[in-house]
Amino acid sequence: MRVDVVWLAALALSLPGLSQCDPLFALSAPNLLRVGSKENVFVEAQEYTGGNFNVEIMVKNFPAKNQQMFSKTVTLSASNKFQFLQEIL
């Protein structure tokens, strides 16, 4: 058995399962953003009971990541159920 496989298995077993993450922060976005078309980015905090907090959504060029093409800060709160859907153009 290769050593790198053993290390990978040990690392995977030592990480907490998703069910143990409380709260769970999630971001859902297209794998590829197309220039000139509308795309949506969804952010949420699942099972979060704290106060309001800001989330910064940033889109940069790829692969260099040296130009910021879009940026917006949104507030997740109890009134929006700690969820936000942002349209990116």
Note the main attributes of this structure.
89 residues; mainly beta; two-stranded antiparallel ribbon; Complement C3/4/5 macroglobulin domain-containing protein; C3/4/5_MG1
Please tell me about this protein's structure.
The protein is mostly beta strands. The protein has one domain: Immunoglobulin-like (Sandwich), CATH 2.60.40.1930. The protein is built from one helix and five strands. The longest helix has 12 residues, at 3-14. The radius of gyration is 17 Å and the shape is flat. Keywords: Signal. InterPro entries: C3/4/5_MG1 (IPR041425). Residues 1-21 form the signal peptide. It comes from Aldrovandia affinis.
Q: What is the average of the pLDDT values?
A: 84
Number of DSSP helices?
1
Percent of residues in helical segments? 10-25%
The spatial strand order of the largest sheet comes to: 1-2-5
Distance between the termini: 49 Å
Characterize the overall form. Answer: flat
Rounded to an integer, what's the Rg over CA atoms? 17 Å
CATH architecture: Sandwich
